Amino acid sequence: MALINVAKTALRLTTNALDDELADEIDACLLRLHLAGAEGADEDPLVKDAVRAYVRWQHDFCGRGEEWKTCFADIRDAMGLSDDYRAVQASGGAGGACCDL
């Protein structure tokens, strides 16, 4: 299932009217994950959970936007700390702010 469908299902949408907005929000979500040091495939369950939480936060789903924001932050932080989701640097080595302890 494409991430746009994940987002639409999370918001209980059946229309295509918001697809462009949702695509931008998905890109922003994935960029936030990347900035936290996390990368994952579109099919990965945690990436899908992050997208669900992110779009629900952005749309204040059921009036609980702050709870969805916290949920997204928890997923983002867990992925960023996990070796399974650690972003591979393009240079192939350590550099920048990355520290191998």
Average pLDDT reading: 87
Termini distance? 37 Å
Largest sheet: none
What is the percentage of strand-forming residues? under 5%
Radius of gyration: 15 Å
Overview of the structural elements:
With 101 residues, the chain is mainly α. Helices cover 55% and strands 0% of the residues. It is built from four helices and no strands. The chain has helices spanning 3-10, 19-35, 45-58, 65-81. Helix 1 (3-10) packs across helix 3. It is globular. The protein starts with a helix and ends in a 20-residue tail after the last helix. The model is unreliable at 89-101 (pLDDT under 50).
Question: Can I get a quick summary?
Answer:
The chain is mainly α and 101 residues long. It contains 4 helices and no strands.
